[in-house]
Amino acid sequence: MAQIRWRRERWVVGTILGMTIVIIGLVIFLRQPAVTVETGSVEYGELRTLITAEGRTRIHDRFVVAAPVTGQLERIELHRGDEVVPGSIIARIQPPSAIPLDARQLGVAEARLSAAEAAWREAEALVGRERTALSQVRRERQRAGQLIESGDLPRQEFERLTTAESAGEQQLLAAQARTRAALAEVEAARAALIATGREAASGHKAEAVTIRAPVGGRLLKLYEESERVVTAGTPLLEISNPETLELVIEVLSSDAVRIRPGAGVIGDRWGGDRQLRGTVRVIEPSAFTRTSALGIEEQRVKIIADLVERPEGLGDGYRVEAGIIVYQTPRALKVPLSALFRDGNNWAVYVVDGDRATLQPVRIGQRSETETEILDGVSAGTRVILHPPNDLTPGGQIRIR
Question: What is this structure's pTM?
Answer without folding.
Answer: 0.59
